[in-house]
Write a structure and sequence with these properties.
The chain is an alpha/beta fold and 323 residues long. The protein has helices at residues 4-8, 19-22, 26-67, 90-103, 116-124, 203-217, 254-268, and strands at 76-81, 129-137, 141-148, 153-156, 160-163, 169-173, 185-187, 226-231, 237-241, 246-250, 298-303, 306-310. The strands form three sheets. The chain has a seven-stranded mixed sheet, covered by helices on one side. A hairpin with a 2-residue loop joins strand 11 and strand 12 (306-310).
């Protein structure tokens, strides 16, 4: 006699399986899980390695493009001088700057490796350069804008030194240079030897340059007639005009004394027309500001239309009646 449960089964003779025995052991489940994790990490590692290798190849190619290809190779250095006024030294300055850049290997190579600070230092330290602006124009150009120092006077000090309005020494010149005939000379400075690029520190020089620049900027007719300005250790200025006429400015501010000088010129005429040896031109003129005039001489009497001049008015209590 069969049980009702056995009658319900289509194959009662088929052995039934124990449900507990059909499940995988726990050890097999852990092992499979670890295998899957290992494969996942391996796949991730392969992907990361491939990505890093790809990025490395891209980085190497990009680096070669930036630093080894000709795209960023320096092709030209353009030098431009600011301002409309030219000094005639532009070709010399440009040639000297290019030669120094070539000596330091700053005139070619890669634009990205070019040291702009070193290039600027080469340009700005030139004695005739007052200021310079250096720019990179990618991919292959460098531009240099230069503001020149201009010669204002010549200093006789261990040779002939060309200086600018601030007393900076621009260069040494000789009498064969045309500049030796174009600018007034300054003599009497008591300074040590200076080289181009240095600055002459002297209160007397500063005062002399103020006078010369004031005359030049005002286009004063006296400026073109000045041959030399002599100064001594006490700061006394003596201006020598072409032809030998002397103007004594003393030790004060020469700019403040210019109106007195102009009054004297208005009374006596232009300096080159004044002859101190001609009695008809010798008149008594009071000129304040310690300007004594042009080659002035003093006398205290006239005998038979002859003037008894004193070359030096010293050690006497006589008052001059004729100047």
């Amino acid at each position: 006699m069969t049980s009702p449960r056995a009658e319900a089964m289509p194959f009662p003779w088929f052995p039934r399986r124990n449900p507990k025995l059909s499940r995988p052991p726990k050890t097999r489940s852990r092992f499979a899980r670890r295998i899957r994790q290992m494969f996942a990490w391996f796949a991730l590692l392969v992907l990361l390695t491939a990505g890093a290798t790809g990025l490395a190849f891209v980085g190497i190619a990009f680096h070669r493009f930036l630093f080894e290809s000709g795209y960023f190779a320096l092709e030209a250095v353009f030098i431009h001088f600011d301002g409309w006024e030219r000094t005639g030294d532009e070709i010399q300055i440009e040639s000297q700057i290019r030669r120094e850049l070539r000596r330091r290997d700053l005139d070619d190579g890669n634009m990205l490796r070019l040291d702009i600070d070193s290039l600027s230092q080469v340009v700005s330290t030139h004695p005739k350069v007052e200021a310079a602006t250096v720019r990179k124009v990618y991919p292959s150009l460098v531009t240099i804008d230069i503001l020149q120092r201009k010669t204002a006077a010549l200093v006789l000090q261990d040779g002939i030194l060309a200086i600018d309005k601030k007393g900076n020494v621009l260069e040494r010149i000789t009498t064969r240079d045309t500049k030796s005939l174009e600018y007034p000379y300054i003599t009497g400075l008591d300074t040590a030897r200076v080289e181009p690029g240095a600055r002459i520190e002297s209160e007397s020089l500063t005062k002399t340059l103020r006078l010369l620049l004031s005359l030049r900027d005002e286009d004063h007719p006296l400026f073109s007639k000045i041959s030399e300005v002599h100064t001594d250790k006490d700061g006394y200025l003596t201006v020598y005009l072409k032809g030998g006429t002397e103007i004594l400015f003393g030790s004060g501010d020469p700019i403040r004394k210019m109106p007195h000088l102009e009054t004297f010129i208005e009374e006596m005429g232009q300096p080159e027309d004044f002859d101190p040896e001609d009695p008809d031109q010798v008149e008594q003129v009071f000129l304040s500001g310690r300007i004594t005039g042009f080659n002035c001489r003093a006398a205290y009497q006239r005998i038979d239309d002859e003037i008894e001049w004193f070359d030096e008015w010293e050690e006497t209590n006589k008052l001059p009646t004729i100047v």
